[in-house]
Each structure stands twice: as C-alpha cells, then as structure tokens.
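Course assignment 3, question 2. Fill in each field.
Student: A.L.
Task: Predict the tertiary structure for the chain below.
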Amino acid sequence: MKKDLRNLLIFLVIMGSLPFWTLNTVYYQGIFIRALIYVGLAQSWNIIGGLGGQLSLGHACFLGIGGYTSGLLFEHLGITPWIGGLVGMGAAVVISLMIGYPCFRLTGIYFALASFTVSLILEILARHFDKLTGGDVGLSIRLLGDAPAYFQFSNPKYYYYIGLAIVGFYFLITRRILNSRFGYYLKAIRDDQGAAEIMGVDSARVKLMAFAISAFMAAFVGTFYVQYNLFIDPAAGFGMHQSVQILLASIAGGIGSLWGPVLGGLFIIPVGEITNAYLGKGIPGIDVLVYGAILLIIILYIPKGLISLPNLFQRK
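Answer field:
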C-alpha cells in the first residue's frame, strides 16, 4: 500500500473515531460537519485552481447550483436529493463548460472575472425568481425526520460520516489526477502554458475538463450542504463570502497539494466557528478578522501552506 493511501486510511480511522470520544456533542459534531463541507469544496477548487493554476473567484456558484437544483426538485417534484444531486452535478458541468469554453481560449484574467460574474448573476437570479427559489428569504427543505432515502437523518453522526466519505472519495480523485497524464498536463499548463502548448498539450481542452470535474465535485457538496442545513439562500449558495472561504481553506492548507485542502478546511473552519461562538457577541464579524489574520500569517511565514510545516521544522 502506497504512503498516501496508508495515510488516508489512518486519517479516516482517526476522524471516524472522533464522534465516540471528542466530538460527543451535537455542537462540536456540527462544527466538523461544516469543516468537512469546506474541505470538499476546497478539494474541488484545488483541481482547477491548484493543479491547473486557474483562479476561480466564484466557485461557490457550483455549491449553489447543486444545492438549489436538488432542493427544488425535492420540494416541487418530490425527487430524492440522492438523484437530484446527480442532476445538480450535471447542471454544474454544463455551466462550467459555458464559462470555460470561451475563457480558456484567452489568456489573462478573463476566467477569474467570468467565474465571479456568473456567480453574481446567479445570486441576482435566485433573489429575483422568489416564487421558485424563495428569494432573499431562502429555500427551506421540509423536514421528514429520519428518512435516509431522502438524504435526511435525525442523528448528525450520519451527516458527519457522509461528509467524511465525500472527503475520502475526493482525495482519491485528486490522487488519481495527480498521478495521471492528465494531471501532468494540468501542472505543465500551470507552470508554463506556452511551453506546454509547444509540447503538444491542448491547454483549452485540458483546462475545460479540469473545470468540469471541479464543478461536479462542488455541486454534490452543495446538495450535502442543503440537506444538512435544510436551507439555502442566495448569499449562502452564490455569495462571494462562500467563495472566499473556499479559497482560504485551499490557500491555508497548500494550493496544488493532495493534503492541503484537507488540512486547510479542518483548521480554518473550526477556528472561525469557535472564535465566533465565544467572541462574536462582543465583536461582530470577529471570524472575518481571524480569517484575515490567519491568511496574512500564512502568506508571510508559510506561503506554501500548512502542508509545508514539517519541512520548515526540519530546516530549523
């Protein structure tokens, strides 16, 4: 068994045991479920942003597409979110192709601007079509109780383990890409697109494929997000704050690495949640200040992210 697979197994065993001794309250389980959600989103962003070097500033839009699609299909047609989530993933892939097809044939900041603009447009549309989406009030998912067939569980531990399974599966997807010819092409484009194209790499096609993979990964996390919270609104689904948190988890952990998004999400989100819980009443928005301080420290002292800490200690 290779080292990274062995480490993944150790990680899953340790994380899987936490609800039985450390995360023994609903509050702490909720914090780590939220952390796992952002780990999954960071893993999805890492495919296009970390490995491909393409800055997606509106990546939260795929969370919103997946969440709203499965939620609306469930509320209006009674379709189980397990199937609605697949439809949401397909919708996210279509949107990613619509964004990427024209942008990846150009150089510069066009892709970053397009991803941000699409996310903004979708947020505006979600607010405008209030009879369908609930508008600013948001879309509430009716509670069925303990209904596994409809992605609802009375015990939050089930959501925790589903989130952990998503993270493990996305880890394997990332590992597969890293060790494939497709992954080598992606990293070559990230490092020097001109040189990669001279060597025969179709950069537009490779980036488009990476963006599609990234989008469908984020969309299923969106379905998970909605079924856990039983609610989504335009800001949560498409807002810039969500995209920033996804970026922050990726940057904090280490962009382009296998373990970076996992470490970043599991560090950033619990720190922000706990800080907000204990200091939020006295200092509104303290979690944003903490996120900013963490980002500044990482950029200045550990620019390669938390994943590089062992190497730094070895040098000392």
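Instructor remarks: The two ends are 31 Å apart (CA to CA). The chain has a mean pLDDT of 91.
Grade: pending
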